[in-house]
TrEMBL record:
Residues 161-285 form the NADPH-dependent reductive aminase-like C-terminal domain. This is NAD(P)-binding domain-containing protein. Belongs to the HIBADH-related family. Keywords: Oxidoreductase. It comes from Actinocorallia aurantiaca. The keyword Oxidoreductase applies. Residues 6-152 form the 6-phosphogluconate dehydrogenase NADP-binding domain. The lineage of its organism: Bacteria, Bacillati, Actinomycetota, Actinomycetes, Streptosporangiales. InterPro entries: 6-PGluconate_DH-like_C_sf (IPR008927), 6PGD_dom2 (IPR013328), 6PGDH_NADP-bd (IPR006115), HIBADH-related (IPR015815), HIBADH-related_NP60_sf (IPR051265), NAD(P)-bd_dom_sf (IPR036291), RedAm-like_C (IPR048666). The keyword DNA-binding does not apply.
Amino acid sequence: MAATSVTVIGLGPMGQAMAGTYLDKGYEVTVWNRTPGKADELVARGASRAGTVEAALNANDLVVLSLTDYTAVYAILEQAPAALAGRTVANLTSDTPARAREAAEWITARGAVQITGGVQVPPPGIGTPEALTYYSGPKEAIEAHRTALEVLTGIDYLGEDPGLAALYYQIGIDMFWTGLVGYLHGQAVAQANGISAQEFLPHAIKTMDFRYFLEFYAPRIDADDHQGDVDNLAMGMASVEHVLHTAQASGVDGSLPAAILDLFRRAIAADHGRDSLTSLTKIFKL
Ligand code: NDP
């Protein structure tokens, strides 16, 4: 097995980008996908199509998994558990930290090592110098495969706990989904008022540049300091009410601002009306 050879299992948009990047870098790439036709283009570019999961695992020491979730991971690996022995499985499938830890144990029990990964860029970012992936798991396994992993993205190593990469990934994605859905809701209000997404874009870019707020609030969150010296929830609630009414008057669904309003109301009912928005971090914790 050449040092520059790898197996990629899972050929959704992400796995396609990964296998394609390895081919571009001159790697020998073996691929397997539940729906075999998704490998056709990669095979035409020089990848080897494994006929079975067993053949895909046997082909290389390093096996990259890029699947929808860990249910898919088990559905595939359970087809050839004996072939896992001696392999390093770079599991770049996203799921919960608990499932990442369970899978690491399951894979270890079959004589292999799991490196957990959480990719921080969309498929076109694979193979670009600024892209990063959260990794956790045995450091020596990551070091042994550093060169091959760095073909995909840079390595943001978090520690030995196999759940850590999944945890960091999920925290980031928590922020990503809520932030981006807010952007789409605002664009829907803009469109409903005859303002195109492109027209509003420069304003959205300015509004969504949260860096100042992120940096200002982080030390206060850590210090449990929620003083309402620069903002307070009572003022915030009035503002969100205006957002809700503007959306509704524009014929746009108001459930997103209504959910925020509900959170603000709960925080105010818990006596945080004069406190900063950061006191929501207390309300969120059940
Ligand atoms: P997809 O959901 O498109 O990946 C689908 C892959 O999983 C396909 O190969 C599919 O096989 C396979 N699969 C799903 N269920 C099963 C199953 N039960 N048995 C066997 N195979 C199964 O995801 P992406 O390619 O977009 O992403 C892959 C991973 O990367 C995900 O965990 C995602 O969260 C993560 N990620 C994705 C990003 C993105 O922008 N796309 C960004 C960062 C991370 P088949 O082709 O047969 O359906």
